[in-house]
Amino acid sequence: MVQWNLAAVVGVPGVGKTSLCRQAAKDLECTHVNYGELMLEVARQKGLASTDSEMFSLDIDVQHQIWRTAAEEIKGMSNVLVDLHGVDKSQIGYIISLPIETIFPDIIIIIESTCINIMERRHNDPSKRRIIEDIKSIKEHMKLLRSSIATCSVILGCTFTVLQNNDFDECLDELVDILGK
């Protein structure tokens, strides 16, 4: 268990972090913020986009403005569990999407799973248009996420840990144990 005010939970798309965060926030009686949903809300309010696809097709400078605005909103929150990818894959390469210049997590938790589980979750989630990636690409993304988050934690001076989500209930128990207050 670690003392925290802001915890960042990161993972590649389809790893199950949003489902884990929703339930953990209920169990821990804290606020859950999905960074991507908050960004889309900001984009909608500014009249820039109404869907994820529209938002992520905007000029990268406009996307950065949306990211900063969403991060500023999170910065003012307390007792919050922030759910985000940490590293996003774009058409031009990978982008670190944990806004460490604005928000300062006390702990960062990386959620991982097997590539097969991730591919199955993406395939079985009709609510989102998921990127289709092969196992090699998912492994690369997870490896870059780990190294990027390790670097971010050094810069921030915070702890980071890695949890395996191959069994939802086990991973949820571990997450709640780490964050339990």
TrEMBL record:
NCBIfam families: PRK04040.1 (NF003122). It comes from the Archaea. InterPro entries: P-loop_NTPase. SUPFAM superfamilies: P-loop containing nucleoside triphosphate hydrolases. Pfam families: AAA_17 (PF13207). It comes from Methanobacterium paludis (strain DSM 25820 / JCM 18151 / SWAN1). Keywords: Kinase, Transferase. This is Adenylate kinase. GO terms for molecular function: kinase activity.
